[in-house]
Specification:
The protein is mostly helical. It is built from six helices and two strands.
């Protein structure tokens, strides 16, 4: 299987740059937009991929299982969805805290190469194999 490492870094950089900006300037629409970008994964038009192509970021494809990264992106989208819901309900501290958590984890992955979502994915697979024998 193949993974575009530049796509992963591009996604992380967007989150690291834009989510703190949204919190700092109180721009909830930016959190909503990033949620939509993250949630568009596995749709005919993956908006993060389309944005990367529009900005002409070259691919860096490697042989690597994309499933852990997809799971991590799914978790990020869930947390941004919860952040968006909190912001829509007027719970700004909670909404921005959830958004900044996503930005922090994206930064850790970008700067240090540790993907918490990938780590969780692999451990969930190990636990499943342990309990089901598969």
């Amino acid at each position: 299987m193949r993974t575009d490492r530049n796509q992963l870094r591009f996604n992380q950089a967007l989150l690291v740059l834009l989510l703190p900006l949204a919190a700092l300037l109180d721009l909830p629409w930016l959190v909503y937009l990033l949620f939509l970008l993250m949630a568009s994964q596995h749709t005919p038009l993956d908006l993060m991929v389309a944005l990367k192509r529009l900005l002409r970021v070259p691919p860096a494809v490697v042989d690597e299982d994309p499933r852990p990264h997809r799971f991590a992106r799914f978790l990020g989208a869930v947390f941004l969805g919860l952040a968006s819901l909190a912001l829509l309900l007027g719970l700004k501290p909670l909404g921005y805290a959830l958004a900044l958590l996503v930005a922090l984890l994206a930064f850790v992955n970008l700067a240090f190469g540790f993907c918490l979502g990938c780590f969780l994915y692999l451990h969930l697979r190990y636990a499943r194999a342990l309990f089901t024998g598969k």
